Amino acid sequence: MIEFRRLLESLHRNEVSFVIVGGIAATLHGSARVTFDLDITYERTPENMARLVAALAPFQPYLRGAPPGLPFHLDVETLKRGLNFTLTTSDGPLDLLGEVSGIGTYGVARRHADQANMFGGIYYYLDLEALILSKKAAGRPKDFEAIAELEAIREERRPSS
User: Fold this and answer.
1) pLDDT digits (tens, 9 = 90+) for 68-78
2) How many degrees, rounded to 5, is the angle at CA 137 between CA 135 and CA 142?
3) Is 61 in contact with 79 (CB distance < 8 Å)?
4) At what angle do helices 128-138 and 141-157 cross, to 10 degrees?
5) What is the rounded CA–CA span in Å between residue 103 and residue 100?
6) Nearest-CA neighbor of 54 among 30, 74, 24?
């Protein structure tokens, strides 16, 4: 089971610039769907990547699906050489996205983010329109199922004419 609170608190405490995307963002919009991982997009500056590495170090990040024993060390150089990482941590699965399908980089996601006050801090998460767009762009069967619910939430929020 994911302990996303501890992961989020560590990211916040280490002042990592990130936006929550995916299932947790959908939950923050009112989705009833259960998610089993935390997806974030992160700013890819060297300083922010150093803060990200420091924030995740206590959680022993490892490549999800990689054979046990495969050498892997999450550091700034590793982040520079890659873009998106699917990780297993001691507190659950975590996806680090340098770019979000249909949205783009952290900077674009941040401009399309709402904020939530939780766990003693302010956290940014993808706004409903951008989240729907990212789900459509990802195009996986589970995303299409989520889109229907997210569009229903959007309709419920629209002012009646």
Assistant:
1) 889 999 999 99
2) 40
3) no
4) 160
5) 5
6) 74
